[in-house]
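Cross-check.
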Amino acid sequence: MVDWVGLSIPFAYLGILVGSLATFSSLYRKRKAAKSSSLEPWFPTHLQRDIYLSLLHLEPEAGQEKPPNVPDGVLKAALLQRATEDIKRILEVRNAKQALSNLLQRGSVGDDLWQRFLRAEKEVEAELRDVVEEANALQPNWGQTIFQSANEMHHNAILRDKLASIQAKGKRDREWWDQEKATIQSNFMKELDEDQKDNAKPAVAAPGADRVGSDEDAVLVEGGGPAASGASSSAKGAGKKRKGKK
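Predicted model, tokenized:
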């Protein structure tokens, strides 16, 4: 006879083991989903998407049964702005993924940050699919080219921002140079005025210079000099001649 009691023990053990593993897996997934949902989002609120959805699902005004009709041009413009914001987020995700993966492998960042990034990446992918579907609903086959147009708009916005920053910097530099130029001119004019004042002052003779000149003249007069000796010799000769005549 078959020993059913002996066979039931291994099957019961396997059943308990499989049930415990399933319970643990279910609890782990729920806890992980709750933890990931409680994490801070990677990107801020998608304002352009909220604006588009608000225009698409307008509520009827008071006293009216139907909501106001939004023109297709307005919806297309709002969807294009939404796609432009998605382009920015795609570029940010692509640029940050490799660097964040390297930091995670080195242990420089925690698993929470990586989970936030993965959730943001999934949200971006879902957003791209949604934009393509909305574009095809507004205009057939527009979903194939909407992101190309959005990319061009994004690059044009970057160029405009750079041009505005360059113009602002040029204006600041111009103001600084005008101030510096005015300062240099004022200092130069002050130096010119000081030089002119110095040149306009009369030359003052050194004290004692006249006294030295007068002393030298007195010495020449008292000493007799060559002129005085000549005069005295001529006077003596004239006297001798007069005595001879007598």
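The chain has seven helices and no strands. Helices lie at 4-38, 47-56, 72-106, 111-138, 146-200, 209-223, 225-245. Passed to J.P. for a second look.
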